[in-house]
UniProtKB/TrEMBL annotation:
Pfam families: DUF842
Name of the protein described by the UniProt record: Protein FAM136A
Origin superkingdom: Eukaryota
GO cellular component, one term: cytoplasm
Membership in a protein family: Belongs to the FAM136 family.
PANTHER family: PROTEIN FAM136A (PTHR21096:SF0)
Organism: Micromonas commoda (strain RCC299 / NOUM17 / CCMP2709) (Picoplanktonic green alga)
Length: 127
């Protein structure tokens, strides 16, 4: 890939990394903190051991659901990017024109940078 096209792909990767870091710091860590604080309260229960285990499981459910939903959405996003690149590879196989392939991949990257920007608010919601 040429430098311009490679930059678009690198920009998409950097944007995705930034979203993941922001999710970790602004969403997942606060949820983890809440789950740990909830878990501490479970250890104070005076009932049977099973009651404490049920309480602990319940404390971890919200973050597990949210992480699963976010990871599912990100996997689907990555699959869409991969399909776009695969279409570029399919087109390139018939033309053998590296320049067209590079341009196609760059267009995929630019398109999905915009898609990620619109997906980010949805990912950042606390569920």
């Amino acid at each position: 890939m040429s430098g311009v096209q490679l930059k678009a792909v690198q920009d998409l990767q950097a944007q995705l990394t930034k979203v993941m870091e922001e999710l970790d710091h602004k969403v997942f860590r606060p949820q983890q903190k809440a789950a740990f604080q909830c878990s501490i309260k479970c250890t104070d229960l005076r009932g049977p051991q099973e009651e404490m285990h049920a309480c602990l499981a319940k404390c971890g459910e919200p973050i597990q659901r949210h992480e699963a939903a976010v990871m599912g959405e990100l996997q689907e996003f990555q699959h869409r990017v991969q399909r776009c690149v695969q279409q570029c590879q399919d087109k390139q196989a018939t033309t053998q024109d590296q320049g067209k392939f590079d341009k196609c991949v760059s267009e995929c990257a630019v398109f999905y940078q915009k898609e990620l920007a619109s997906l980010k608010p949805q990912l950042m919601k606390k569920r």
